[in-house]
Design brief:
It is built from 16 helices and 13 strands. The strands form two sheets. The protein has an eleven-stranded mixed beta sheet with strand order 10-7-6-5-4-3-2-1-11-12-13. The protein has a two-stranded antiparallel ribbon with strand order 8-9. α5 packs parallel to α7 and α8 packs parallel to α10. The longest helix has 18 residues. The protein is globular. The N terminus is likely disordered.
């Protein structure tokens, strides 16, 4: 098919920089379409309401150096944190549409020196709070999260201490287990156990331990286990081990049924489909996240979704939250996300629609 030359309007210099950076992420055969959409005026009537959910990256640093992530490979850098004033501006811009705030990012949010202030601000605003954490925090922080009625998803990638410590280095299994039990006990005492989840990132090294993680969740009083899947350029490990992976999932499902744990598993792993007991994902159902949530990075960049697509809508300081949300870069993403020209980062997405719906329905 010949390339069609389409007319462009002229965005600002800062917008052109974002167009260039966003386009660099797109395969060449799709790039012309994305450039057109990103530089075309937003049609009349195309605006959508401000989102009800914001993902806020408090820090872009971590105290762990996990092999699948490596954000913490250079140690903790507390220069890469969100100022409280920026957070306040985001809350003000999204009022009154905002209902839920997830503190989550490429790092461990509890490292922020003013983490308590962020939690209390969310609580004072009457918003649903949510946190993904490696749970290396102290018991005071655990009590704070339970008191603020946060949904807490604890990253937990293995059942055996040796593998846990290899995948979440240099965390101590014993110390983190003690913290998980403290979290489970505090939530149970407050009648909020349903707010707790273990989140396991399935990968070649740990898939055989899925049933063991379900057992640990039951022992700690955590009623939900969420399975994410590592995204690699080479997913051949899934094909090579598919029989064993299927068996591990079946064992985990049986364990979950026996122990009264709700197990959330995506409906595909790589190119392989799962059916029984699996949760729909955008890969099979289509994505609604660009209409319902946005990400604010620690430095004020405004992004797409909680799966941390690198595509950028704009910047709080240069474009404003509302300006970026209604702007051509956001409109371009919505236009293309559920088409064959979708962003490559979206392909094979593991976002679990049922998990989000289940939590919302329980509030």
């Amino acid at each position: 098919m010949p390339r069609v030359q389409l007319p462009l309007h002229r965005p600002s210099a800062s917008a052109l920089e974002l167009v260039h950076n966003n386009a660099a992420q797109i395969p060449e055969e799709r790039r012309w379409r994305w450039k057109h959409e990103m530089t075309a005026p937003v049609p009349d009537g195309a605006a959508c309401p401000l989102p009800a959910r914001a993902i806020v990256e408090l820090v872009n640093t971590c105290n762990l150096d996990c092999p699948m992530c490596r954000v913490g490979r250079h140690g903790i850098n507390l220069e890469r944190i969100m100022p409280l004033g920026l957070f306040e501006r985001v809350l003000a811009a999204l009022t009154p549409s905002l209902r839920e705030v997830r503190l989550n990012g490429l790092g461990e949010a509890t490292l922020h020196p003013h983490f308590v202030s962020f939690v209390r601000r969310i609580q004072a605003a009457g918003l649903i709070g949510e946190l993904i954490t490696n749970l290396t925090c102290d018991n005071e922080t655990i009590r704070l999260l339970v008191d603020a009625e946060f949904t807490v998803l604890v990253s937990w990638d293995a059942a055996t201490p040796r593998l846990f410590e290899a995948l979440r280095r240099p965390a101590s299994f014993a110390a983190t287990w003690a913290s998980l039990c403290a979290l489970g006990s505090a939530a149970a005492a407050a009648g909020r156990s349903d707010h707790l989840h273990l989140m396991m990132t399935l990968q070649r090294a740990n898939f055989s331990e899925l049933a063991g993680v379900v057992e640990l969740a039951a022992e700690a009083g955590v009623p939900h286990v969420v399975v994410n899947v590592i995204k690699l350029a080479d997913e051949s490990w899934i094909e090579r081990h598919w029989g064993a992976i299927e068996a591990a999932i079946a064992c985990a499902q049986q364990t979950a049924a026996t122990r009264g744990i709700r197990l959330f598993i995506p409906d595909h792993l790589g190119r392989r489909s799962l059916h029984d007991g699996a949760s729909p994902t955008p890969a099979t159902r289509g994505c609604d996240r660009p209409w319902n949530e946005l990400v604010i990075r620690y430095n004020g960049e405004i992004g797409v979704c909680n799966m941390f697509n690198p595509y950028v809508y704009g910047h709080v300081n240069r474009h404003g939250v509302e300006g970026a949300w209604h702007g051509p870069l956001a409109h371009a993403f919505r236009t293309l996300v559920n088409t064959p020209d979708r962003h490559p980062y979206c392909e094979g997405c593991y976002y679990l629609e049922d998990l989000y719906s289940q939590r919302q329905g329980g509030r």
